[in-house]
Amino acid sequence: MYPSGPGLPARASPEAAQSRGVNEEHGAPVTTPAIALVTGAGRGIGAATARLLAARGWDVAINYARDASAAERVADDVRNAGRRALTVRADVADEAAVRAMFEAVDGGLGRIGALVNNAGIVDLKSRFDEMSTERLRRMFDINVIGSMLCAREAVTRMSTRHGGAGGVIVNLSSVAALLGAPSMYVDYAASKGAIETFTVGLARELATEGVRVNGVRPGIIDTEIHADSGDPKRAFASTGLIPMQRPGTALEVAQAIAWLVSDEAGYVTGSLLSVSGGR
Ligand code: NAP
What we know:
By secondary structure, this protein is of the alpha/beta class. The protein has a single domain (33-275), classed as NAD(P)-binding Rossmann-like Domain (Rossmann fold). Helix content is 39%, strand content 13%. The chain has a 7-stranded parallel β-sheet, sandwiched between helices. Strand 2 (59-64), helix 3 and strand 3 form a beta-alpha-beta unit. The longest helix has 26 residues, at 133-158. It is globular and about 45 Å long. The termini are far apart. 52% of the residues are buried. The site of NADP nicotinamide-adenine-dinucleotide phosphate (NAP) has 30 residues, from helix 2, strand 2 and helix 5.
């Protein structure tokens, strides 16, 4: 039998806690401890992920950039699910803030077993030749460097090379990485392309160190992010572009993330999972 890991109620199996690091029967990594950090978790996909991970037995650190009360509402839901929650303000593009965030999580919940690199931005729909350098830098600072800074902190805590017990990183890409988002936001699409390459490279680098790294590639999902592109109705106005003829929900993306962090995905690393209704 597989010991139950954080994909299942966390403390359901004492053997799981005892066999930290390796599934004795199959040699598959067991992702302990069941403490997750989800960046950008005050709303949208991040909030849905925090709630779902709590329902599946994870304690959750909820990172946010500006909206403290939204993050606190998610934390209340995590606690109501019987798990511990901690809200942490940090701009993921700010190295010092990221370091302080991980230290706050170490002290408040303990060493994480999962990082969901969800925080991300788009910008107003625009032709590429009209995009400012400031916009390009902000896009890459938050979407790419921010995810890398968080991953670097996570690796030093999870990797067996650093004395860690293993863990999982899930990076949020986008179908835009494949489509390029012409005349809309090629900067955003390119940042997600970088996330995909980073995911594959880091997964291979850490493959023997107990750390799995995967990506989720959402299509058009019904969240507030579209308002930031100047088109708040985009999710429902774009159904003609989607083979399933509807936008996805934040929960549907969260379910893919929850699977990737669970021990059911124990042999999955370096993968990009599209959650896009066929797009
Ligand atoms: P969302 O509703 O706009 O939420 C984004 C979250 O990220 C917010 O909670 C925000 O926090 C946080 N955030 C923004 N900048 C941050 C920063 N610098 N540091 C820390 N947190 C920051 O977005 P979403 O639609 O859920 O998207 C989540 C992820 O999925 C993103 O990476 C996005 O690119 C990706 N994705 C989304 C879609 C889609 O259609 N929705 C499609 C493909 C990929 P505050 O509220 O506190 O500012």
